Amino acid sequence: MTRAQQKEKTRRAIIDAAFQQLSADKGYSSLSLREVTREAGIAPTSFYRHFTDMDELGLTLVDEAGLMLRQLLRQARHRIEANGSVIRTSIETFMEFVTGHSNVFRLLLRERSGTSAAFRSAVAREIYHFGAELADYLRKETDCPAEFAQMQAEAMVILVFHAGADALDATAEQRKQITQRTIMQLRWMAHGAASYGRKPKD
């Protein structure tokens, strides 16, 4: 393994360790450098070869979370091609993400309204990119004006994020109910959008 590969491997270990330390009871602001490096299996001094401080690591986690969200949307598109149900497939894919990557989603929720302006800005940027990709998809699928697609995408993102927050600590049965409720709400939204001359796809 080259030095560059080893450096990237260690950097990845630090990022993964930070995500693993997050929980329902522990937000990013509660993490310490020693906890993260211990989890990553490196000396605390080695941390500074990869990040200037914990804030830079935190911003990197937000970037990673945003990338996961965009990959999620692309994954949902492939699944939609298989069964054709846009809304149901998208929500079920999103709920799988919330369940399987709860620490990642918690980070976005907490830092979206946290005390750090830099973190709030980073989360807002990632959510904007997620919404922009969704808007582009809606525009192509419904042949609607870009402005309408953007407004619908923003409303959908808000609704879905709220549903994800509700699902975080829910039981399997409660999560199923949240998923069904959200699917119905998004279908109503899609049919409402159709009043502007678009054909809803659900």
Automatic annotation (TrEMBL):
GO terms for molecular function: DNA binding. It holds the Pfam family TetR_N. Residues 32-51 bind DNA. It comes from Rheinheimera tangshanensis. Signal peptide: none annotated. PROSITE patterns: HTH_TETR_1 (PS01081), HTH_TETR_2 (PS50977). Residues 9-69 form the HTH tetR-type domain. The gene is fabR. Keywords: DNA-binding, Transcription, Transcription regulation. This is HTH-type transcriptional repressor FabR. SUPFAM superfamilies: Homeodomain-like (SSF46689).
